[in-house]
Write a structure and sequence with these properties.
- The chain has 334 residues and is of the alpha/beta class.
- Among the domains are: 68 residues; 48 residues; 102 residues, 2-Layer Sandwich (Nucleotidyltransferase, domain 5), CATH 3.30.420.
- 33% of the residues lie in helices and 14% in strands.
- The chain has 6 helices and 7 strands; from the N terminus they run ααββαααβββαββ.
- The strands form 2 sheets. Strands 5-4-3-6-7 form a 5-stranded mixed beta sheet. The protein has a two-stranded antiparallel sheet with strand order 1-2.
- β3 and β4 form a beta hairpin.
- The chain starts with 14 loop residues before the first helix and ends in a 9-residue tail after the last strand.
Length: 334
């Protein structure tokens, strides 16, 4: 973090200007102290298991952004510009993968020397910066020519149209996939996606995007079922449930539903099966929903201390289930 101090020999002799420098540095120090207090609160403040760790990441992002803004203001103000250390500032610049496309830009100086001869290259400095090309919309135009024979009346020949996810609709499968990933992986609501598209002149109503997502969900149902069946062939699984607000039709309000996660991750002990997770929605938290989801599974099920999971012990004898409780939850009993 920049200190904001000015070298004594660089201070002006004018009293009014000195007061201005002091006031500017006092304001910067107060803001930095507030940022430090916020950082300590986010780092050492009271935490709860109910708080998503991502919320703390958001706080750190805001703090780091504010610190960078204060440092930029210090650097831009000639009166409070800090002394530059010969050692460059240590920052996490990341690494640029080798597979990214490289676009080279050569900045040439004047080749002609003052003595009248032409300069020759003795070396070069190379730097790399990360550039992003914003998402670009394009239109796929599909043409299906019709052919006929002039020598006979065999009829007209035309290649059949390729099947589409939405018959007669405008989106390609890649477009629908992008909408789904933005909504469920990046948590970007459909109305915001609609606004993003509109800024590029592509006006698509939110309800239209919702129709695309619903259609894709129907087509992906067999994939979900196949993944669920595959996970049930494992000898050990993990299960947990989390509340999710859902619309209550007719009331204009929301009600509490639950997402049940069934997961497998054997990487810790070099298991042969790849990790996987399936989410299943249920209107409640009762153990009967866990029993319904686990039909066909037999093995070890790791769960927390919720008593509703005892219901899975009542499954059919040909698929016995043993419960393994999470040690991290044992501290609740202490």
């Amino acid at each position: 973090m920049a200190s904001g101090m000015t070298a004594p020999d660089e201070l002006p002799d004018d009293i009014a200007e000195l007061k201005a420098i002091i006031r500017a540095q006092q304001d910067q120090n107060a803001r930095l102290e507030a940022l430090v207090a916020s950082f300590k609160k986010a780092l050492f403040g009271t935490k709860s298991e109910k708080i998503d760790p991502a919320q703390y990441e958001l706080e750190f992002e805001d703090i780091e952004t504010a610190i960078a803004q204060v440092e930029a203001e210090i650097d831009a103000d000639e009166r409070t510009a800090p002394l530059r250390s010969p050692k460059p500032r240590q920052t996490n610049r990341g690494s640029l993968p080798k597979h990214l496309e490289r676009v080279e830009v050569v900045i040439e100086p004047k080749r002609a020397c003052g003595c009248g001869t032409k300069r020759h290259v003795i070396g070069e400095d190379v730097s790399e910066r990360l550039d992003i090309v914003p998402a670009q919309f394009r239109v796929i135009v599909t043409r299906r020519p019709k052919y006929a024979c002039r020598s006979c009346e065999a009829g007209i020949v035309q290649a059949p149209a390729k099947p589409r996810l939405i018959e007669g609709g405008m989106p390609t499968e890649a477009t629908i996939a992008s909408v789904i990933v933005s909504k469920y992986a990046d948590h970007l609501p459909l109305y915001r996606q609609s606004q993003i598209y509109a800024r590029q002149g592509v006006n698509i109503d939110r309800s239209t995007l919702a129709f695309w997502v619903g259609k894709a969900a129907h087509e992906l149902k067999p994939v979900h079922d196949a993944l669920l069946d595959h996970l049930k062939t494992s000898s050990k699984l993990f299960m947990d449930e989390t509340p999710a607000p859902v619309l209550n039709p007719g009331s204009g309000k929301t009600k509490k539903g639950y997402f049940w996660a069934l997961a497998r991750d054997d990487r810790a002990w070099n298991g042969l099966e790849p990790p996987g997770v399936v989410f299943t929605y249920a209107p409640g938290r009762s153990g009967k929903y866990a029993s319904e989801i686990l039909q066909g599974f037999g093995g070890i099920l790791q769960v927390d201390g919720y008593a509703g999971y005892n219901r899975v012990l009542d499954l059919r004898d040909d698929y016995p289930i043993g419960l393994a409780y999470c040690w991290a939850h044992a501290r609740r009993k202490l």
